[in-house]
Amino acid sequence: MRRAFIITAIVIVLAGVGAAGYFYFFNQADIAVAPDGSSNLPVAGEGSPLPGETTSVPGLSPSSPVPVSARLVKISAGPVVPGAVAVNKPGNASTSPEVAVSFIEQASGNIFTYLTQARTLTRTSNRTIPGIQSASWLPNASVAFVRYLSGDAFSTVNTYALSSNGSGGFFLSQNLADIAVSSTSVLTLASGVNGSAVSLGRTDDTRSSELFTTPLSQILVSFAGKNQYLVHTKPSATLPGDAFLVDSAGRFSRVAGPKSGLVALASPSGKWVLISYALDGGMQMELVNTATGAALQLPVSTIADKCAWTNSDSSIYCGVPGGPPAAAYPDDWYQGALHFSDRIWRIDVASRYAQLILDFNRETDAVLDAEALALDPLGTTLVFINRNDGSFWGYSL
Fold first, then answer.
1. Cβ of 242: how many Cβ atoms within 10 Å?
2. How far apart are CA 297 and CA 100, in angstroms?
3. CA trace torsion 19, 21, 24, 27 (10° rounding)
4. Which residues fall within 8 angstroms of residue 335, CB to CB, at 6 or more apart?
5. Does the global pTM surpass 0.70?
6. Using alpha carbons only, what angle is made at residue 163 by residues 162 and 165, rounded to the nearest 5 degrees?
7. What is the pLDDT of residues 189-222, one digit of tens each?
8. HSE of 219 in the Cβ direction (CA atoms, 13 Å)?
9. Where are the domains of the chain?
10. What is the pLDDT of residues 293-343, one digit of tens each?
C-alpha cells in the first residue's frame, strides 16, 4: 500500500512539473508574439527586440531547392506563409538578370531568399514567430508585414513589421481586418459592427491618417493605382457581393456586383479589375475596364485570389482547375473542403486570349492547387504555393 502511495505521489509531482513547464513555455511564447495592450511594444524607430528573435527552430529549415525541369523548381517543401515577393537583381554581360524570391517558413517565421539563377537558398532572418498566417511585403523585399493570431482562444490579430534581415521591427494596431502595402505606404482596415475605417500611413508606421469610412463592415481593401483603392465585400456563395473603386476623397464608384461569391483583384495601374463570382454551382470570371465599366467574359474560370497581375497590366497568371465539381464557390475552397487540380494559364489582356503555361501534373506527377501567386517586376519568374501540401514553387516564364 505504501509503495502504491509513493508511486502515485511521484506521478502527481511529475505531472505538476510538466504542466508548469507547458504553461511557462506557452506564456513566454505568447509574450513574444502576442503582447497585450499594456505591454511595452516595439514602435517605429526603436526596433525593440522580440523575445526569441534570434532563436531558430532546429530541424525546420527548408530542404534544398529541387529542379524538376529546366524551368520548374521546387523551392521549398514547405509549408510556407502565403505571400512572397520576387525582386529583380542586376546581372552582367554573361548572365541573365537574377531574381531574388523572399518567403517565410510557416513553422518558425524564419525568412529565406532563393536566387533563381544560382538556385541557392539562404536564411536571412532567424527571428522566431510561429503561426504566421499571411505576409504582405514591401516591393523591395526589405520588410514583410506579417499577421498571426494570439491571446485567449486565438482571438487577437497581430500585425508586425518583420525586417528581412531580422533587425528592428514594430507592431501595428491590433485586430486590423486587412492590410495592403505599396513601396511608400501602408493601407490598413479597421472594421466593427458600425462599419469600417481605412487609414493610410508611411511604411514606418508614421503619419497615419484616416482615408475614408464606410458603413460596410465585412470588406477587404487594396491599392488600385495612384491615389485609388479597391474595396470589395468579403466573398460568400450565399450573399451577393460588390466591388468599388474609392478615390482619395473617399468617393465610391461601383465596379461590379451584386454577384454571389464575388472576389476582385485590381491591376497595378487600376485600369482593370479581375472579377470572379459564383453562378449555378460553378465559377465565372470577368475583366472590367474601370474607365468604361465594360465587362469582358474570360475563356477560363477560377477564383480571382488564385491569380496575379504582371506589373505592366498586360497579363494575368492564374491557377485554373480542370473540371471543378459543382460547389459553393469560393467558400468550399477557402474552408479547405475542396481541392483543385490546376494548370497555370496566362490571360493576355490586350489580345484577349488565354494561353496554357504550365501543366503541373505532367511535369511532376503531383496535383497542384495553386495559391499566393506572385511575379517579379520584369515578369520573368512566377512563384506559387501548392495548397495541397504547402510546398513552394518557382517557374521561369
1. 18
2. 35
3. -70
4. none
5. yes
6. 135
7. 999 989 999 999 999 988 999 999 999 999 999 9
8. 27
9. 1-33
10. 999 999 999 999 999 999 999 999 999 999 999 999 999 999 999 999 999
